[in-house]
Specification:
The protein is mainly alpha-helical. The protein folds into two domains: about 60 residues; about 60 residues. About 85% of the residues lie in helices and about 0% in strands. The protein contains six helices and no strands. Helix 1 crosses helix 2. About 5% of the residues are buried.
Length: about 120
């Protein structure tokens, strides 16, 4: 299990390095996750120790939010003074996310229906 924890941390480190060297517009851990996903695609399966480690990390995920909660409490006064802009940003971004998700769902549904109709036409 230690080797897979090391693998996860190495993927995150390589992701951080790639983001800083290539000046990529995404967080280093996301780049590391993409690298780990690529490793799993090449391997063709999720090794049992990695699955067990992942389950353990997910079961204790709430502990990883403690630093973020401390940061919020540290800047609580600043959050109070910027309450209106933050609230507007949260509401607008939520509405945009819902709208984009709905549009994508409609688009993918139409695309899959066209594919089904094309398959039926090819069979006849």
């Amino acid at each position: 299990m230690v080797e897979y924890f090391t693998l996860i941390l190495c993927c995150q480190l390589i992701g951080e390095l790639l983001v800083s060297v290539l000046n990529l517009p995404l967080p280093g851990p996301v780049a590391g996750m993409i690298l780990l996903f690529g490793f799993l695609l090449v391997k063709g399966e999720i090794p049992e120790p990695l699955a067990h480690l992942s389950d353990t990390l997910l079961n204790n995920l709430s502990l990883l939010f403690v630093p973020a909660g401390v940061g919020v409490m540290l800047h609580f006064e600043l959050l109070g003074t910027e309450l209106i802009p933050l609230s507007v940003a949260l509401v607008v971004s939520t509405l945009l996310t819902i709208a984009v998700s709905a549009l994508l769902m409609v688009w993918f549904t139409r695309l899959s229906q066209k594919n089904i109709e094309n398959d039926r036409g090819a069979d006849q």
